[in-house]
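Take a look at the protein record below with the fold in mind.
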Amino acid sequence: MGLRSTVAAALLAAVAWSAAGIAQDADGGSLARFSGSWRGTGSLILDDGKKERVRCRLNVQVSESGASATQTMRCASAARDVMLTSQLQAKDKDVSGVWKDAGSGTMGRIGGRLSESTLTLRMSGEDVDALLTAITSESQQRVTVSGVLGPIRKLTVAMRK
């Protein structure tokens, strides 16, 4: 997988959990507060130690039942511009889904568990094996992804609704 696809996978991991949060509302209330547009900034650290700033926008659409979500994300740094899509399903506290880099066609899987305010996901694909930990409140998300993401070793993104 090329650097573009690897960055795409890492950036998707950074926000994919938000759609999982959308698909599973702990108190059974309205899911409307989770859908919509999110934006934020963060950084990624490459395996050579270089750091890049990233800006991301995320649009999330939730099914009426709240059991599935579709998202489109665009993230950019000074060197890259990536657009990704994903579909996620939630059943009880289990989350699973797929992601795709719209530019390269690279695909992978996402799976994990959701608790009240934290989501832990394993992300996989070609040259991708990473653990995502996310903490959320109603209008903010803070996500850290660590592991093998091609040349990326760590990604952190903070987003607001």
Residues 3-160 form a domain with the Lipocalin fold (CATH 2.40.128.20).
